[in-house]
Amino acid sequence: MADNTTRWAWARVDLDAYVHNITVLKRMVAPSGVWVVVKADAYGHGAVPVSRAAVSAGVGGLCVAITAEGVELRDAGIDAPILIFSEQPIGEVDDIVHHRLTATVYRKQYVEALASAARRRGGVRVDVHVKVDTGMHRVGADPADVPALVATIGANADALRLAGIYTHFAAADTPGHPANAVQSQRFAAVLDALGPVDASVAIHAVNSAGAMSIPTERRDLVRVGIATYGVVPGEGVIDHCGDLRQVMSLHARVSRIQRLAAGEGVSYGHRFVTSAPTTVATLPIGYADGVPRRLWSQGGEVLVGGKRRPIIGVVTMDQLMVDCGDDEVEVGDEAVLFGTQGSERIRSEDWARALDTIGYEITCGIGRRVPRLYSPSV
Predict the structure, then answer these.
(1) Domains in the chain: how many in total?
(2) Is the pLDDT assigned to residue 158 strictly greater than 90?
(3) CA 250, CA 303: separation in Å to the nearest integer?
(4) Which candidate, 170, 137, 183, 173, places its Cα nearest to that of 358?
(5) Do residue 74 and residue 210 come from a single domain?
(6) Domain assignment present for 364
(7) Do residue 161 and residue 308 come from a single domain?
(8) How far is CA 369 from the centre of its chain?
(9) What is the set of active-site residues?
(10) CA nearest 299: which of 355, 232, 365, 234?
(11) Average pLDDT of the residues in 248-274
């Protein structure tokens, strides 16, 4: 595959690796179904091409965060079920109905608004999933309110169909965390209070980390996001991730070479000063593209010529500098910010660990002005 020629910085997205990861996860959780999370532009990987690959891999459905993300997929011709993870502004219910999106509900007012929108279109039933707040305390219905909410959906059966009941674990990436047992118990109590539900109602509870670490909560389906992109969901589940392949890699080309003497400052504030003569390479990518400004001070490295090279000086908006020592480097040479070059590899999780964050933030942060190159091409 040819490199991008319009800018000397790009991300590669390996859709074969993405499909491989889905296959690994499907095998891991069988017989439970697999829905994949493609919110936030598929965690920075590109929602439309990734969703198409997911559908081709046989997933049961897709999950997004906001109405516009679901509409984008429908406009691209993707016909799979699409679950929106939270209630949306009341003004968007007509779009949800029109685009056949599956709504999450946890308030009676929202249920009734969806039902009214469906009736306005005539002969339409909207699939809804009830979200239960068992301890994440972000969104969802109080467990005590769930039976009444389900009854309200049933009272609007001409316009709504109860398609799912679910919750979300706050500490699934830490298998031994006591919150996991508490949330499991609370969710089980809600289901017991409801009594038998139709077999068509999907019961689901866990994300990537939970699918790996809490097998008793795999239930009818799991909602896997970050693991499908080959990024470890958390240190507590790393042992389950050995077969996953990183889907995104980040690249740039050397745009300038300079030989600096000892004692020269580099980048804003001269917070880095050379201690010996060295060759410095500039890469045309910076914090506006998602390379964290302070990565240089946290041991950040890139690969040039198959070797690890330290980032030196503050990462600027559009550029960063790396120390290449006494090695021969030329303008146009390829650098890998995360990914593989020769026998060396840098992962997005390496950035996350250095910056005390999570891999999700790294891939989501790669800006839209960084072109995505897809393999196979789309």
Answers:
(1) 2
(2) yes
(3) 11
(4) 173
(5) yes
(6) no
(7) no
(8) 18
(9) 39, 268
(10) 355
(11) 98
Contacts of 110 (CB under 8 A, 6+ apart): 87, 90, 93, 103
Do β-strands 221-224 and 265-266 pair in parallel, antiparallel, or remain unpaired? unpaired
Give the burial class of 23: count Cβ atoms within 10 A of its Cβ; 0-12 exposed, 13-18 middle, 19 or more buried.
Answer: middle
7 in any annotated domain: no
- Lowest-pLDDT choice from 5-9, 82-86, 323-327: 5-9
Burial 43-61 (b: 16+ CB within 10 A, else e): bbbbbbbbbbbbbebebbb
CB 251 within 8 A of CB 11: yes
Q: How many Cα atoms occupy the beta-carbon half-sphere of 192 within 13 Å?
A: 6
Amino acid at the residue 303: L
Residue 197 shares a structural domain with residue 63: yes
Question: In the prediction, which pLDDT does 2 show?
Answer: 45
Q: Is the peptide bond before 175 cis (omega within 30 degrees of 0)?
A: no
Same domain, 208 and 292: no
For the entire predicted model, the pTM comes to 0.95
Q: CA angle, 104 as apex, 102 and 106 as ends, to 5°?
A: 150
Across the chain, mean pLDDT equals 96
Give the domain-ending residue among 200, 219, 240: 240
Q: How far apart are CA 49 and CA 69, in angstroms?
A: 13
Confidence of residue 350 (pLDDT cuts 50, 70, 90): very high
Count the residues in the chain: 378
The sheet with strand 126-131 has its strands ordered as 82-84, 61-64, 33-37, 221-224, 202-204, 160-166, 126-131, 103-105
Question: What local confidence, expressed as pLDDT, does residue 3 receive?
Answer: 55
